[in-house]
Amino acid sequence: MQIRVDNLKKCFGSVEALKGLSFTIKEGTITALLGPNGAGKTTTINILTGLLKADDGDIFYGNLKFNYNNKDIKKLLGVVPQQNNIDRDLTVYENLLVHSILFGLKKFERDKKINEILEFTGLFNQKNKKAGKLSGGMKRRLVIGRALLHNPKILFLDEPTVGLDPATRRHIWDFVKNINKTMGCTVVLTTHYIEEAELLSDYVYFIDKGKIIKQGEPENLKNQLGKYVLEIFKDGKTVEEYFDTKSKAIEKLKFMEAISSAKIREVNLEDVYLKLTGKRIEV
Predict the structure, then answer these.
(1) Fewer beta carbons under 10 A from the terminal one: N or C of the chain?
(2) pLDDT value at residue 63
(3) What is the distance between the alpha carbons of residues 159 and 194, in angstroms, rounded to a whole number?
């Protein structure tokens, strides 16, 4: 199911959180909303899932117009918030049981579906453990698995790996890819991690100060700058130059003088953001 957003606006007092966002998310893709904290990513997700009411703008799921209390469309959505809002005193199984009841699963369906989710998330052997005693990565998998109990068509992930160590983060990335490929679930994620957006997403929207400032497929966005970047630290600041080949970057470096340090690396999405805004993505 495709999502279309037209001219979405939201203010909190005198602060314009969203300044007329318009974008489309294609069915079956993983789409990233990439930007620094405070850019408007979570506000966007909250409006798209009905947790917050927009001041202006329209949202369409397929051909259906959405509003914040539309229960029929909400049944198609799975939502994973930034925080692991599990019940720490309940077991893994009990957490899933409570939410299967809230999702309206029939009694005869619950046990089968919960066991499917436990297997899929790799938590089956942990099902009788108190959720509060799980590792950070396991808690995250439980929260994501919980959102999948009712077979959503679209899964929203708000900063899915924030606070996790690099190894655990990569496990979650594989898990998200698996959800998209094996379950055919459209995934929309917010992140400020460059590597996360590059490795997971089919399409990226850069959001800054409540506006979309750039969009496209990650490789295409990077290729617009070049393949390689030469980072030069000179006179107390870092300057970047972009090249189509590494040999051209090396050749340029040979003729530069009074350099404190230099590095040649592949272009990434942060370079795209830096070129657009003149600053790096700050968490």
Answers:
(1) C
(2) 92
(3) 12
Nearest residue to 86 via CA among 68, 73, 78, 98: 98
Regions of the chain where pLDDT drops below 50: none
Q: Which two tokens stand for residue 83?
A: 């925080």
Q: Pairing state of beta strands 154-158 and 77-80? A: parallel
Token duo for residue 201:
């997403």
Question: Model's pTM, two decimal places?
Answer: 0.91
Beta strands, E only, the chain: 3-12, 15-25, 30-34, 56-61, 64-66, 77-80, 154-158, 186-191, 203-208, 211-216, 228-234, 237-243, 261-266
Q: How far apart are CA 75 and CA 61, in angstroms?
A: 12
Q: What is the per-residue burial (b if ≥16 Cβ within 10 Å, else e) of 82-93?
A: eebebeeeebbb
